[in-house]
Specification:
Layout lengths: L5 E5 L9 H10 L3 E3 L8 H7 L3 E5 L9 H21 L3 E4 L19 H21 L3 E4 L14 H11 L4 E6 H7 L3 H8 L3 E6 L15 H10 L5 E4 L7 H11 L3
Parallel strand pairs: 1-2, 1-8, 2-3, 3-4, 4-5, 5-6, 6-7, 7-8
Helix pairs in contact: 1-2, 3-4, 4-5
Length: 259
């Protein structure tokens, strides 16, 4: 049996009755990297002291891609977050087409994205890459499903791939969230193949329920085999709740991605 991927898990979604630094420490003890969401929610000193491998974190607190005011807000927020990311040694800083509010609802909703918005989004992402090059960090752009995140511009897997591939700079990668792809498009292996040259991280959860592999309809063992066969050797992060015992859920995730 081999483990070709770097496995990680989102600390916010697991052991929710425990402090965040305890969760990060336990994930580290179990051999997983640690994903985080918004840094102001946490005691950075305690997280730093854990010495975990923080694989991904939200790369901004406010802003959006496709208008002047939102882009300026995004760049300012991303620059501040980059400093926190460097302090914790975070591998990737994650972006969306727009900021998300309570329950993941987009703050700035657009059901139709016009050509001017596409051009502005590409320009904004090039500015992000300039910032990333200056700061020595990497950003990712994540796809989201539009059932849970209605009106999110540039949310689909297709749109994220189009933007990241058109920018085509090493400072910007795709955070390919297969839970969202399953709901939005399906056909997971083919989307992995299409996105492969630009993937920075693959995130997983089963559907329905957004719990660990093996609790829903997705054949994650098959996805893992396909990723390995196409040469993917990057990180795979479980951004999922535990259906029952958290450590059992994590071992189910590890098993699904062990070949």
């Amino acid at each position: 049996m081999t483990q070709p991927f770097q496995l990680a898990a989102c600390a916010e979604m697991l052991w929710q009755d425990k402090p965040i630094d305890w969760r990060a420490a336990r994930l580290t003890e179990m051999g997983f990297g640690v994903g985080l969401w918004n840094w102001p929610d946490h005691d950075l000193g305690k997280l730093e002291a854990v010495g975990a491998n923080y694989t991904i974190m939200n790369g901004y607190l406010e802003g959006r891609l496709a208008d002047d005011e939102g882009a300026d807000m995004l760049l300012e927020s991303a620059r501040e977050t980059a400093q926190v990311g460097k302090r914790l040694g975070v591998d990737r800083l994650n972006l969306h087409g727009t900021g998300l509010g309570d329950g993941g609802i987009p703050i700035w909703q657009h059901d139709v994205v016009d050509g001017a918005m596409w051009l502005k989004a590409k320009d904004t992402l090039n500015r992000i890459c300039d910032l990333a090059e200056e700061e020595g960090v990497v950003f990712t752009l994540e796809n989201l499903n539009l059932l849970d995140h209605p009106g999110c511009p540039f949310g689909s897997t297709e749109d994220v791939l189009a933007l990241v591939s058109s920018v085509n700079r090493p400072q910007l990668r795709i955070n390919l969230d297969l839970y969202h792809t399953q709901i939005g498009e399906g056909d997971l292996v083919r989307w992995c193949e299409k996105c492969l040259p630009w993937i920075g991280e693959v995130q997983v959860a089963d559907n329905p329920g957004r719990c660990e592999p093996g609790t829903g309809e997705i054949n994650y063992a098959g996805v893992a085999k396909a990723l390995n066969n196409m040469g993917y050797r990057g990180p795979v992060g479980m951004e999922a709740f535990a259906a029952g015992d958290t450590e059992v859920a994590l071992e189910a995730f590890r098993t699904a991605f062990t070949l």
